[in-house]
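quick one, 232 residues, struct below
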Amino acid sequence: MASLLIAWQLTNKHVLIVGGGDVASGRIDHVLAAGAHITLVSPHDGLHPLTKHHLDTSDRISYHDRPFLPADLDHADMVLTAIDDVAVSRDIAVRCRALRIPVNVADDPSFCDFYFGSQIRQGPLQIMVSTNGKGPKLANIIRRKIEESIPRGAGAAIEKTGLLRERLKERAPGVGGDVGKRRMKWMVELCTAWEMDDLALLDDSQMERLLDEGWEHDIVPTPAELGVAPVS
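---
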């Protein structure tokens, strides 16, 4: 059976992480990048240097120097365990499922509601390779091969395209209908006609010109026509 791959919004959600070792440090990195608040429960002598770094540099982590307590599940929107004690990890997972809290138990797929996979992050671009918990190392190898094929400016191009899309929606508001279809058609033509590196170079004035000279006349100007400098 396959998994449903989704982009889970965690901004301002509360994530409980049990454990502070090497695996936990990676979990912390992913969760912080998603904008969540973290409650970290782990004895201090088991903290990985990267975990300590996160504690020193982030104001979105509440740390408790002790083992897990059932009360830690109060108000948790998600739970991640990364400890060596299999029995405790599985007990936490059972408690989470009784409370309908999504849980991930490191290295124990049968007790996971979701998997992390091997991830690529480049600005707003995110790609995940998942083996459904069966081959984490192979997922990492495949991820590296995919990453090598992604243009360096892909993240910046997506960021600029998103800003342009928002400006276009302000200029031509509406959901669905003829205006919505025209917006989508014009954006598709732009993204097809322009190279990703050129999209990444768009500045505010060029975006306005693109809308004035392109959208308003139902054409897609070339980067040269807008003065977008070619990448050497």
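The longest strand covers residues 14-18.
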